[in-house]
Amino acid sequence: MDTNNNPQADRADDDTLTNRQGHPITNNQNIRTVGNRGPATLENYDFIEKISHFDREKVPERIVHARGAGAHGYFEAYGTVGDEPVSKYTRAKLFQEKGKQTPVFVRFSTVVHGLHSPETLRDPRGFAVKFYTEDGNWDLVGNNLKIFFIRDAMKFPDMIHAFRPDPVTNIQDPRRFFDFCANSPESFHMVTFVYSPWGIPANYRMMQGSGVNTYKWVNNEGKGVLVKYHWEPKQGIKNLTMKEAAEIQGKNFNHATQDLYEAIERKDYPEWELLVQIMEDGPHPELDFDPLDDTKLWPEDLFPWRPVGRMVLNKNPENFFNEVEQAAFGTGVLVDGLDFSDDKMLQGRTFSYSDTQRYRVGANYLQLPINAAKKRVATNQEGGQLRFYNDKAPGQNLHVNYEPSSMGGLKEAEQVGTEYTPYVEGNLVRESIERQSNTKQAGDTYRHFEQWEKDELINNLVNDLAICPQVIQDKMMALAEEADEDYGRRLRAGLMEKSKMKDGFKMEIGEEMHPLGAKDAHQAVKDAIEKGHEQDPY
């Protein structure tokens, strides 16, 4: 083709603007109109294509974990778990060889708040890691805190509804938060963490991560053990008080995203060590809690943390939407050598997470580069929104999209290692686990806090519980007293003092609505009116 006399000829290095059909855009400043003042014509194809795509350029916001930041990197295995060969416990290939590196993508997030909410709000932080292993993807989806509010997936929608903004006012209301928590005593340990400085990490680089749920490892002989995952930051751990967070928020509500991006750009690559706790599979009646209960920590003196590898983040996303917003994780995404436990929260999450991604991003979300496995993929799946290639094997008969077949279709893979087949017996019931011990570990955590952490915890709890009905205050004080005598005494005294200060005064409309732990939030509404500068109309 002669391109010398054809200024519109396609050139790979051309930097001129086109539309999605490949048509050159010669005027990107003006729509087509009758005269330069209008009206516009309907056949404004370039404009209609541009604006109609703009109208659709966001996918639905995540219900939880909406606000996020992410980065690429690698996981490097130690080949051991503590002082033992890792093969003793798991046959997962990514752990076996010392120095073996596996590409990863990590998404950090806040949990309850929306896509553009401040990163200083009191909230757990998501910590999700996608490992692109030679056996396919493994998603380790967790939080910065090592426990959770509830132990049964049936309660999850109610919990999130209670923690998110009021459906009438669209403002977070601590009364709703504590109404749920006071009537769900298993949440008290998590409340103790969230209302302490641990509820506001300083940034994403300086926070821990955890798988939260109990998983299993399976070795080559088909033996399984229970396992908990922990990420420990090499940068150290830093948290904020409510006052410090408010000051930072007034200057920058994207501070954590900016911190992560800038650290990687200056080659100060954040690093975490991955450690595991291992427990023999079984109910462990000698413990005062169920090892599958995700509201509990496994005592480190009984189940030591054993290092298995390290993770380094060394590359920022090239496009936030493509790589961070469309990144899709699921607790059911495991590779050979990793397995589920019977943890009831994990079982419920495993359906919910992948189902959410199909709703948000589409049936073919796993074909997007950020989510696709970095290995051969061959399925018999067909169709669906935004499907753009077929998952077919080389030489496969394209007429055969089913299995089994004798005409060149896909066939089952060979089982590697002995299959893990745990014995399960029992009646089908709808019951809570027996060993609940809802407050014991909360007391241990309180006693472990430094004095300034205890002071911050009590102050934050008092500020929010003071606006709650007496029945909710009574339940929360009873849980605190059950957890630790000093914890309960200080909370009760703080609420009594707060009650005296308010005695004789009627609470103003709106005073109860504010982010969790915030002090004098309602005053900001008045300040905006009183301190605002009057202007003449123009």
TrEMBL record:
Function, in words: Decomposes hydrogen peroxide into water and oxygen; serves to protect cells from the toxic effects of hydrogen peroxide.
Enzyme class: oxidoreductase
Pfam families documented for this protein: Catalase (PF00199), Catalase-rel (PF06628)
EC number: 1.11.1.6
Family named by the database record: Belongs to the catalase family.
Upper taxonomic lineage: Bacteria, Bacillati, Bacillota, Bacilli, Bacillales
Binding residue positions for heme: 353
Protein name: Catalase
Active site feature: 65, 143
